């Protein structure tokens, strides 16, 4: 039976490859194709994915400028709505979005905690506005929060609307663990205290389900494991070029995403005679915070006379990514601590490009499920170098892994498959 679903999504400036954004966009589109009425409600900034702004004419709630001012200046917790409306102007928020990535979790611990406190936080008037608007305009059957950093909304929304609230889980630990230890501890505790306000959690991997069970104490019956699926139309099989061989990187071009480790491995391989023609191509966006880091990598490569063999590509929309994947022989995003999923793995395998990933996070789970790559021991100093070399020297094996992974991904990791499973979660909590 068709449902009315409100999907609350933190907006982005679209300056880097956002896995949560791609997941949300794919899920919303697939649910609509299945006949459901899905409204995207943006928070903080406009929701922008692949040059498309989602949400239509829906107001932006918890506008990023207002939220910041209410956190830092008590006056703005009591300003009239006409002033808040000026600060929530889309053109102004779009300008603020250009600085996306210039702020760090370490400086936003207090604001994150305030948001998690919900009714007791400093942004209460924003929460009142959101709940009132939904109660008078939408009256959904279910509300879906994009991540558990929004869990402070769950109780007020459930109470005011009288409907269940579901919550996705993906990479919250990356944000919270980057804070000062005391801020991180308090945020984790606040999230655990709000757990009873959530009817069901949709978690993107078995590995992350275990992590969140341990860190938030979420009961296993509340955790519904749903791998991310994507809209894979247009992902053609790559020719896997090996003349010359090309290593690819697809993620935000930042230190935490492992780009430095990959450049180091590339330089180590490039110094060997058998890899003198090797190239490296990286894409996924660069934020203001990342530019000094990327410039440092350029300087290292220039000093080694290797810069001409490396491309840092800043355009990464859907069409650009598909074209990029046609030009690489193998893809690696060696995130040192691992991630809850790894959407770039699915995109690479949809194009038949094998992956090489460290044995951390959900990477072993995805590689084993798809059969589309290799994992290496991240504790070995030469683990990444050796794993890349093994595939780059064996195009036949690389091709077989890519073909195997592509077949599995096109069958099991589609947006429609994801939406069907999430739909069952909604039905279970609505009953």
CATH class of the largest domain: Alpha Beta
Q: What's the total helix number?
A: 18
User: How would you state the average pLDDT, rounded?
Assistant: 93
Distance between the termini: 12 Å
| Residue fraction in strands | 5-15%
Shape: globular
Number of separate strands: 14
CATH architecture of the largest domain: 3-Layer(aba) Sandwich
Task: Indicate the percent of residues in helices.
Answer: 40-55%
Q: What is the name of the CATH topology of the largest domain?
A: Rossmann fold
Q: Return the structural class.
A: alpha/beta
Q: CATH homologous superfamily of the largest domain, by name?
A: Glycogen Phosphorylase B
Q: What profile does the largest beta sheet have?
A: 6 strands, parallel
Question: How many structural domains in the coordinates?
Answer: 2
């Amino acid at each position: 039976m068709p449902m009315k679903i409100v999907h609350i999504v933190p907006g982005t400036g679209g300056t880097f490859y956002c896995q949560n954004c791609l997941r949300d966009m794919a899920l919303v589109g697939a649910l609509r194709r299945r006949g459901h009425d899905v409204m995207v409600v943006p928070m903080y900034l406009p929701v922008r994915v692949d040059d498309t702004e989602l949400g239509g004419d829906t107001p932006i709630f918890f506008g990023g400028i207002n939220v910041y001012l209410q956190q830092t200046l008590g006056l703005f917790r009591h300003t009239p709505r006409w002033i808040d409306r000026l600060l929530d102007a889309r053109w102004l928020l779009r300008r603020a979005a250009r600085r996306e990535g210039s702020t760090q979790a370490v400086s936003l611990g207090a604001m994150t905690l305030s948001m998690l406190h919900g009714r007791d936080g400093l942004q209460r008037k924003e929460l009142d506005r959101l709940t009132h608007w939904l109660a008078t305009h939408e009256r959904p059957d279910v509300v879906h929060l994009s991540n558990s950093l929004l869990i402070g909304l769950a109780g007020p929304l459930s109470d005011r609307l009288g409907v269940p609230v579901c919550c996705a889980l993906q990479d919250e630990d990356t944000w919270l663990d980057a804070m000062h230890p005391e801020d991180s501890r308090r945020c984790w505790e606040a999230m655990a205290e709000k757990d009873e306000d959530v009817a069901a959690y949709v978690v993107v991997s078995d590995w992350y389900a275990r992590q969140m069970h341990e860190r938030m104490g979420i009961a296993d019956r509340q955790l519904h494991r749903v791998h991310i699926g994507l809209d894979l139309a247009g992902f053609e099989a790559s020719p896997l070029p090996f003349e010359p061989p090309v290593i690819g990187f697809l993620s935000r071009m930042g230190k935490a995403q492992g780009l430095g480790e990959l450049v180091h491995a590339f330089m180590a391989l490039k110094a060997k005679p058998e890899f003198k023609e090797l190239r490296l191509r990286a894409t996924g966006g660069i934020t203001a915070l990342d530019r000094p880091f990327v410039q440092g990598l350029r300087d290292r490569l220039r000093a080694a006379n290797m810069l001409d063999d490396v491309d840092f590509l800043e355009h990464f929309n859907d069409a650009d990514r598909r074209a990029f994947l046609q030009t690489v022989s193998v893809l690696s995003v060696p995130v040192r601590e691992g991630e809850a999923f790894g959407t770039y793995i699915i995109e690479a395998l949809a194009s038949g490009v094998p992956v090489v990933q460290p044995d951390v996070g959900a990477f072993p789970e995805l590689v084993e499920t798809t059969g589309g790559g290799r994992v290496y021991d991240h504790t070995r100093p030469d683990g990444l170098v050796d794993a890349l070399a093994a595939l780059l020297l064996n195009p036949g094996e690389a091709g077989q892994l890519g073909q195997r992974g592509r077949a599995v991904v096109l069958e099991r990791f589609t947006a429609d498959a994801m939406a069907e499973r999430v739909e069952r979660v909604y039905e279970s909590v609505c009953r």
